[in-house]
Amino acid sequence: MGEMTFVRAEKNGGTVTFKTYAQLEAAYVSGDLHPGDLKPSVSKVINNLLQPVRDHFANDPYAKKLLETIKSWQKEIDAKKAQAS
């Protein structure tokens, strides 16, 4: 991914950029990077990584049909679980 920047208020240390995972991990383990700063930034990165996949399933007719089929199977599984309880 290259580098990752965390935009924080100045009172929380200001914006910080990590160029390696090791730097990020060390800052988190030491407490220099708060979980409240880590979670939203990592969520944003994950969403950006997943967006091309979402676009593919939304725009490709075959993939869209495949996703619909899988979702219908999941509904069947959920209904069977509900009946069993």
Percentage of β-strand residues? 5-15%
The number of domains is 1
Mean pLDDT figure: 93
Structural class: mainly alpha
Strand order of the main beta sheet, please? 1-2
Which topology does CATH recognise? Tyrosyl-Transfer RNA Synthetase
SSE ordering: EEHHH
The helix fraction, in percent, is 55-70%
Tell me the major beta sheet.
Answer: 2 strands, antiparallel
Radius of gyration over all CA atoms, rounded: 20 Å
Please provide a written account of the structure.
The chain has 85 residues and is mainly alpha-helical. It has one domain (4-84): Orthogonal Bundle (Tyrosyl-Transfer RNA Synthetase), CATH 1.10.240.10. Helix content is 69%, strand content 7%. It contains three helices and two strands, in the order ββααα. It has helices spanning 21-30, 35-59, 61-84; strands at 4-6, 16-18. It has a two-stranded antiparallel ribbon. The chain starts with a strand and ends with a helix. The model has no long low-confidence stretch (mean pLDDT 93).
SSE topology sketch:
Blueprint: E1 4-6, E2 16-18, H1 21-30, H2 35-59, H3 61-84
Antiparallel strand pairs: 1-2
Helix pairs in contact: 2-3
Features:
2 strands; Tyrosyl-Transfer RNA Synthetase; 85 residues; mainly alpha; single chain
Condensed summary:
By secondary structure, the chain is mainly α. It is 69% helix and 7% strand. The protein has one domain (4-84): Tyrosyl-Transfer RNA Synthetase (Orthogonal Bundle), CATH 1.10.240.
